[in-house]
Amino acid sequence: MKDIETKREREKKMVSQMIALYCRRNHHTKGVLCPECAALNDYARARSEHCPFMETKTFCVNCRVHCYKPDMREKIRAADDFLSPRRRNPPRGGDKARKKETGERKPMKLKRLFFLILGCVCLALGCVGIVLPVLPTVPFFLATVFCFANSSEKLHTWFLGTELYQKHLDSFVKKKGMTAQTKAGILMSVTLLMAVGFFLMLRKALYIPCTILAIVWLCHLVYFLFGVKTIKTECEEQI
């Protein structure tokens, strides 16, 4: 009994894939069936579900009982005739190419989804860090590159081509360092904005937040001066 049900499900799946390929190529659909092919798919699967000869049958064309209505029989024949030469000459690439042609999409794995969400969060925090220096921009953008590389090739390629990457990470990634100009720009903006915050909190006698802010500023200073290698620009190298 279990073998019969397995055979039945395999037949329904094969018919659905055949109709999907036929619809995609002839009705120019993508991912979904047109109403006509959707009705044919439902009808064909229902016929397979109630077929009493499933245990001994081979192909429907060899069946002694033609259970399809005349109009549905013509439609399923058209789909089968379209697929017949493709059975003899299957698309290169095997199962991967078949899934592409029939519009089947592989569900996103939980790991990829996690890295995709984490990459978007890191990108947002890095952008905020450009305006709010309390947040370090470079580490968040590095995390964005790593997360997108493990989740979405399109997003990874897109981010590598953005001005954000070119300005903040390109020289750091290629040569594991930053130019003196890039360092100066980052430290100047950090110092300016943190000084404003420090002054405003000092007027309110908020000494503990002032201390924390001063420690954060010192950490930024130590990191960029001693933790990040200073590389020369092309003009400086020529001199």
Your description of this structure?
The chain is mainly alpha-helical. Helices cover 72% and strands 3% of the residues. It has 12 helices and 2 strands. It has a two-stranded parallel sheet with strand order 1-2. Helix 1 (2-26) runs antiparallel to helix 2, helix 1 crosses helix 3 (70-88) and helix 6 (137-149) runs antiparallel to helix 7. The longest helix has 25 residues, at 2-26. The model has no long low-confidence stretch (mean pLDDT 76).
**SSE pattern:** HHHHHHHHHEHHEH
Instruction: Tell me how many strands there are.
Output: 2
Strand order of the largest sheet: 1-2
Strand content: under 5%
Largest sheet: 2 strands, parallel
**Mean pLDDT rating:** 76
What percent of the residues sit in helical stretches (DSSP H or I)?
A: over 70%
Instruction: Write down the overall geometry.
Output: rod-shaped
Query: How many helices?
Result: 12
Distance between the termini: 83 Å
Low-confidence stretches: none
Radius of gyration: 31 Å
Which class best fits the helix and strand makeup?
Answer: mainly alpha
